[in-house]
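Before the break, one more example. Copy the sequence into your notebook; we will annotate it together after we see the structure.
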Amino acid sequence: QVQLVESGGGLVQAGDSLILSCVASGRTFSTYIMGWFRQAPGKERELVARILWSGDNAYYTNSVKGRFTISRDNAKNTVYLRMNSLKPEDTAVYYCAAKLRFAGPYDYWGQGTQVTVSS
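Here is what the structure looks like once it is written out:
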């Protein structure tokens, strides 16, 4: 069982930056693939970024490429999402999630943190 706790959301202006953090419980954090998802009102949840076990081969959805950076610190059981040049369309609840298998579903989810970007 893994528990995930996100933090770092808030209200910012367009062009600002935020860093989201997600701390995982347990001693097997390095065995999990970690992802950041977001869900805006009236929209489906989407995968924003994903990072593999050792931090290699990050994936980003097209709308955040060049602006967002996912990273992880396995010694701290933490995954980060640095968000630069934020846009109003980035407004959403952001969730971190964890899974063991590359081709499998995400097994564990955090409670979410709200990010609001004003124009």
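The chain is about 0% helix and 50% strand. The chain has a mean pLDDT of 95. Try to locate both features in your own notes.
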